[in-house]
């Protein structure tokens, strides 16, 4: 009996010696499986906050006249940032040619006015000896109207020419004021330009008054002519010479109108305003690579007054003060761990630390090269699939700041 009991205890001890290692091994396998499952369910990424950045540029080559903001200044949408001159140096000749054509058109108006004088004298001579017929009356009213129109055109051409000269004197006066402030010229030179500018302004104002009176005279002359034409007496054909002059006057009228519009367009291009498209702050623009070695510290942060910029080249940039999204990159091993609308935690690492709940907004369709700041090793290229994550409300981060992304 005792021998049987001892044998039973020996079997139990042998069983325990073999069962314990097996149990421990099974537990380890379970832990490993659990760790792999947890690793597939949870993940950690590094991303960065990104805000909207707008570059301020022109659609054509231009020279910077003035920059109204400084680096890191806060700006509002619609605020004036830069004033540029889009009239290039080779277009100066075009503008000068337009002025010449305007002067020629003014001279042609004077020539047509001279042609009207003998016509008027001839009509007066005929009226003195013969009874004025309806044809003669029509000619007289027409001559009066065309003479008034010529006077208006003559004054328009004169005012436009003087206005162009006055604008040039105004620019020259501003330049002299800056030079005088730098003691580069004597005050007499500035005073001389001011006197010439003011005298020309008075002349323009006087001619504008004459123009208003001439336009009133033209209106009255045309009214008399139209009232005469509406009379029941049969209308007579106009004199051939007078008709030819009238057509030439019409041509010059359209020519002067077109030249004035072109000169006005040049004037508007002299001062083109560029405004901010968004609320934000002024940030530096990137320097050109070929010029980087020649720059001193701080250069090319903003363009400077007087620089010429090509079409599309940034003059400055405006960035949002608050980020609009968070960008992270997922390597190929974790591609199956993320889905759109999946909840994640966004971790701000700088003091004070914050953790906020968000979700995956979009997952990019292709694998791309990551930004260099996200590479584990700066010497090894790293690729990943871009992921956009919404910025959680209340999370205090700035554009460009690195944050952690943690799966739930």
Kindly describe this structure.
With 408 residues, the chain is an alpha+beta fold. The protein is built from five helices and 15 strands. The chain has a six-stranded antiparallel beta barrel. The chain is elongated. 16% of the residues are buried.
Key structural traits:
5 helices; Elongation Factor Tu (Ef-tu), domain 3; OB fold (Dihydrolipoamide Acetyltransferase, E2P); 4-stranded antiparallel β-sheet; alpha+beta; 408 residues
Q: What is the CATH topology descriptor of the largest domain?
A: Helix Hairpins
Radius of gyration: 42 Å
Mean pLDDT across all amino acids: 78
CATH architecture of the largest domain: Orthogonal Bundle
How far is the N terminus from the C terminus?
63 Å
Give the overall shape. elongated
**Number of contiguous helices:** 5
* Count of separate structural domains: 4
Order of helices and strands: HEEEEEHHHHEEEEEEEEEE
What structural class do you assign from the helix and strand content?
alpha+beta
Ranges where pLDDT stays below 50 over 5 or more residues in a row are 34-41, 234-238, 287-300
Task: Report the sheet with the most strands, covering strand number, pairing sense and barrel closure.
Answer: 6 strands, antiparallel, barrel
Helix content: 40-55%
Q: Give the beta-strand count.
A: 15
What percentage of the residues does DSSP assign to strands (E)?
15-25%
Major beta sheet, strand line-up: 1-10-14-12-11-15
CATH class of the largest domain: Mainly Alpha
């Amino acid at each position: 009996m005792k021998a049987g009991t001892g044998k039973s205890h020996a079997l139990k001890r042998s069983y325990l010696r073999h069962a314990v290692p097996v149990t421990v091994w099974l537990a380890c396998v379970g832990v490993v499986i659990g760790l792999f499952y947890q690793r597939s369910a949870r993940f950690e990424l590094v991303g960065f906050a990104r805000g909207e950045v707008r570059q301020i540029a022109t659609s054509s080559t231009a020279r910077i006249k003035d920059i109204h903001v400084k680096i890191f200044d806060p700006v509002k949408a619609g605020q004036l940032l830069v004033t540029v001159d889009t009239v290039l140096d080779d277009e100066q000749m075009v503008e000068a040619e337009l002025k010449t054509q305007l002067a020629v058109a003014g001279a042609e108006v004077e020539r047509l006015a001279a042609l009207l004088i003998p016509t008027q004298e001839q009509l007066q001579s005929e009226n003195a000896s013969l009874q004025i017929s309806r044809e003669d009356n029509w000619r007289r009213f027409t001559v009066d109207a065309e003479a008034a129109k010529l006077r208006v055109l003559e004054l328009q051409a004169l005012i436009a020419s003087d206005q162009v000269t006055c604008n040039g004197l105004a620019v020259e006066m501003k330049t002299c004021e800056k030079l005088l402030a730098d003691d580069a010229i004597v005050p007499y030179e500035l005073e001389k330009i001011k006197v010439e500018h003011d005298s020309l302004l008075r002349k323009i104002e006087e001619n504008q008054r004459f123009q208003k009176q001439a336009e009133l005279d033209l209106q009255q002359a045309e009214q008399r002519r139209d009232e005469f034409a509406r009379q029941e007496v049969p209308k007579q054909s106009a004199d051939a010479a007078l008709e030819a002059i009238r057509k030439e006057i019409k041509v010059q009228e359209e020519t002067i109108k077109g030249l004035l519009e072109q000169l006005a367009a040049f004037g508007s291009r002299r001062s083109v305003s560029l405004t901010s498209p968004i609320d934000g702050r002024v940030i530096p623009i990137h320097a050109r690579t070929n010029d980087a070695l020649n720059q001193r510290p701080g250069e090319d942060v903003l363009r400077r007054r007087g620089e010429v910029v090509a079409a599309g080249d940034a003059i400055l940039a405006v960035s949002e003060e608050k980020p609009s999204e968070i960008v992270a990159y997922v390597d190929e091993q974790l591609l199956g761990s993320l889905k759109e609308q999946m909840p994640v935690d966004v971790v701000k690492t700088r003091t004070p630390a914050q953790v906020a709940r968000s979700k995956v907004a979009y997952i990019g369709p292709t694998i791309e090269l990551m930004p260099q700041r996200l590479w584990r090793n700066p010497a090894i290229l790293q690729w990943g699939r871009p992921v956009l994550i919404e910025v959680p409300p209340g999370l205090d981060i700035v554009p460009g700041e690195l944050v952690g992304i943690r799966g739930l």
